[in-house]
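Design job #97: recover the sequence.
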């Protein structure tokens, strides 16, 4: 992606694209025609399995109000108790908290390029797939990566953070 193309993107997507470019990641963000605010919308728009969507869920750690990012497989639900056991008691984060801490609106929260570095956990179930897709800073923007890329780009640990089915 060249500089002129980068400046045509929404600000959040520009931040993600810059991080990906600096990390020599082979896939730049792409803009979808329709919004992908949910994992199901993203999977439908991309023609991939729901589990291949790396959804970013933001919690607020109660002790210090730090953002906690859990990147989970789109077909899984985060177990708040498991997350709390790993990082301290957490609660749901509202839209204003998410925007203030990440710089992204709900539905476009990327796993990287946050305004403030969150505490991050990666769902081990993402490793079921060779390739996954994550939000790229805007409800219409996504990028492709492998689970190991996600680990390398975020530096986050892999954990069991989902509800048992």
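Job complete. Output follows.
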């Amino acid at each position: 992606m060249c500089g002129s193309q980068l400046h045509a993107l929404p600000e959040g997507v520009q931040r993600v694209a810059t991080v990906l470019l600096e990390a020599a990641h082979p896939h730049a963000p792409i803009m979808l025609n329709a919004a992908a605010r949910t994992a199901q919308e993203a999977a439908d728009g991309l023609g991939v399995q729901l589990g291949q969507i790396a959804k970013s869920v933001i919690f607020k750690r109660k002790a210090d109000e730090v953002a906690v990012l859990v990147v989970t497989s789109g077909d899984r639900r985060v177990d708040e108790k498991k997350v709390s056991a790993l990082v301290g008691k957490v609660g749901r984060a509202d839209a204003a908290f998410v925007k203030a801490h990440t710089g992204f609106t709900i539905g476009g929260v990327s796993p990287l390029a946050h305004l403030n570095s969150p505490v991050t956990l990666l769902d081990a179930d993402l490793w079921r797939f060779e390739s996954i897709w994550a939000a790229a800073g805007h409800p219409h923007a996504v990028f492709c990566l492998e689970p190991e890329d996600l680990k390398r780009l975020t530096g986050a640990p892999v954990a069991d953070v989902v509800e048992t089915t």
